[in-house]
Amino acid sequence: MRLDLTGRHALVCGASQGIGRACAIELALLGADVTVLARRADVLAALANELPRSHAAQRHGFLVADVADTETLRRQVDGLVAAHPVHILINNSGGPPPGDIATAEPATFLDAYRRHLLANHTLAQAVLPGMRAAGWGRIVNIISTSVKEPIAGIGVSNATRGAVANWAKTLAGEVAADGITVNNVLPGSTDTPRIAQIVAAKAQTSGRSMHDVQQAMASAIPIGRFADPAETAAAVAFLASPAASYITGINLPVDGGRTRSL
Ligand code: NAD
């Protein structure tokens, strides 16, 4: 299978931990030059230094940016692509806060849309000219299985994820003829700092132990456990590879079979 990404430059957002970090590692293992983006310079510098290098010319770097600051983000990524065009964009950021949709404040929607829909759009607009010039590009958005089945108790997240999925499907149709694919990976419960916070919050509100909460969540998953972030990242890396050239506009759950819809 054609998986080699030598000579390709990947920009991985939300890369300081969790799924984003795992994506950076997988793409580096396939030979890509990887730029990791998040807000903590020290963490990013250490990660860029630690990422695998499979050939002598492979170079990794980092970009300290807040994806919620749309205008600054655009300027920063314009600077990055001017120096080194991006061929692979992994759109990823922290999940919106939990809560019912009936009581959600408008400001919560605006913040979530800024960190997901507008950030993805801004980053895509900045990298698309370079992808078109190369006649090759991959955009992979990390979203959630809530694209297929809204999840109770995370109303703003559900609404935002649906918007991102429709944005991605529309963009996929517009750029397909340029050799650029746009796909979404939908994680289920994945063993990251984010899920640890969710388990701790559920334990506190229910009075159960974290172990019991985690067991109950895992029992709803046919595979019977949370994903390792590397398992999610493997799907992302495949969609970013030359082998996935005829796949665009899809929503790929990586959820151990949890989603009940087709
Ligand atoms: P995480 O919270 O562990 O990591 C999120 C990353 O995004 C971190 O590197 C963080 O620093 C970065 N980030 C957050 N806000 C940012 C900002 N404003 N600017 C720049 N960087 C920012 O999350 P994760 O578990 O790795 O999940 C990644 C995505 O997948 C999230 O959107 C999450 O909601 C979604 N998801 C996760 C799970 C799961 O079980 N872990 C399940 C479904 C969906």
From TrEMBL:
InterPro entries: NAD(P)-bd_dom_sf, SDR, SDR_fam. It comes from the Bacteria. It holds the Pfam family adh_short_C2. Belongs to the short-chain dehydrogenases/reductases (SDR) family. This is Short-chain dehydrogenase/reductase. It comes from Rhodanobacter fulvus Jip2.
